[in-house]
Amino acid sequence: MLTELEAIQYVRDVGSGRTKPIIVAGEDPHQNVVEVVIKFSSACDLGTNSLAVEVIAACLAGDLGLPIPEPFVVRIPDDWRDSLPPDVRVRFSEFDNLAFGSKLLWPQWPAWASGNRLTPPMVQTAAEILAFDGFIENVDRRDGNPNCLVNGEQLRIIDHELAFPAMLLGPKPWQPGGLQSFTEHGRHIFRKELVARPIDGATIRQKWSLLQDHHIESYGAAVPDEWRDEEFVTRILTKVRDIRENIDDCMTELDRILQ
Which of 31, 84, 126, 245 has the fewest CB neighbours in a 10 Å radius? Predict the structure, then answer.
């Protein structure tokens, strides 16, 4: 389950991003204060389903050992909303009483830029991120919108609400050509630099293979009741199981696009 915070202070507007995120200070049940970047369902394409995907993707990434900022569910008190600047308050619905949050890492962690390069210690992490994005069909880590932060040789990935799409055409990630779109120029920030680099594919395969049914069920359980669409959540969890059950073929496709 994700830790729940209560928003206690508006910090500032992020100033960019399709979902119009803002930075707030939130207090956890032990009265620890954390600054987080939050997004509201009313600013997302699929509403609360987008935030359910964020929760599931964050839980999955954590079990796979991928580098993500700590995720939170952030409760919005009714009276606190009135303290927001008018130009911020009007962006969101009055029904946005819960938000998805990620621990603030900026400005020490700027976004990955086109001039950045993978050093040898970063290669395996980048390969595992590419595999993650390919297998969950996340097309939103691309040139111009990297959704990846960097500090020295450390990476952190953010924003997964577009993963597990319902209507993406073409073969599945474990079918021949399933990852072909990732070979297009600029489609993924790491693919070009990973071509022909030494990658420990066995570790990627093992991490996915070791996912147990109770792990996957816990991802759905972590979705707050306010965002729970049982049919939608079940479909996403089924996709995770499908990846696990077809991981050998997923890896074959990953190897193909990195030759």
Answer: 31
**Residue 132 near residue 141 (C-beta atoms within 8 A):** no
Nearest alpha-carbon partner for 58 in 255, 240, 242, 205: 240
SS3 100: strand
At 249, list the tokens: 């073929």
Produce one character per residue of 93-102: b if its CB has 16 or more CB atoms within 10 Å, e if not: eeebebbbbb
Beta bridge partners of 39: 100
The kind and range of the H/E element at 242 are helix 230-245
Q: How is 51-70 classified by DSSP, letter by letter?
A: HHHHHHHHHHHHHTT---PP
Look at phi and psi of residue 144 and say left if phi exceeds 0, alpha if psi is from -120 to 50, else beta: left
Q: Count of CB atoms within 10 A of residue 54's CB?
A: 28
Can you give the residue ranges of every domain in the chain? 3-103, 120-257
Percent of the chain whose pLDDT exceeds 70? 100
pLDDT at 47 over 80: yes
Q: How far apart are CA 131 and CA 103, in angstroms?
A: 24
The values of phi and psi at residue 90, to 5°, are: -75, -10
Residue 168 pLDDT: 65
Report d(CA 237, CA 56) in Å as an integer: 8
Lowest mean pLDDT among 48-62, 76-90, 189-203, 210-224: 76-90
